[in-house]
Amino acid sequence: MKRTLIVLMVLSLMLFSFSALAEAYTAQRAGDFEVKLGIDFGGDFDYGSDSYDVDMGYSLIGEYKYAYNQNINLGAGLNYQFDRDFDDTDGDFSFTTAYILGEYKVTDSPVYLIGHLGYGSLSVDSATFSGDESGGLYYAAGAGMILDNDYVAEVLYSRNNGEVNDEDVEYDKFTISFGIRY
């Protein structure tokens, strides 16, 4: 039931995002593509009641954003987290995430606030966590800055949820990313 509710919520948000994208297309507004490299500082991988420290990792991020109005941008993105190792046990894991995003631009400033909501697919390669694995809800919040109209820098706190062998998994991390806009 919990999984069905999450899937319905994500699908309804995606439907809203696609209708907003269609509105922007018909209004002939062009958007921006961004490609970013993120540095994911070591976080916590919670498995059931146990918590495991995670080494620093890297992410490759692609996003499309368009101006909904003067202060709000909407869009969608993909985030591939390269495999990252556990500190205290053998093995590694990664999430591949698809999400919708919203940005609020601070008036007369290159600074903006950002939020993500989506679904992350979990992949685990570890004897400790062997078995059935599935992804789950992903969300993030943070701030960014446009640098010289062609570059961006962002700081995000994010959480990926999933399951391994019917045990809940949560992965929290901080990310600093730098990218280029097209």
UniProtKB/TrEMBL annotation:
Residues 10-181 form the Outer membrane protein beta-barrel domain. Residues 1-22 form the signal peptide. Keywords: Signal. It comes from Halanaerobium hydrogeniformans. It holds the Pfam family OMP_b-brl. It comes from the Bacteria. This is Outer membrane protein beta-barrel domain-containing protein.
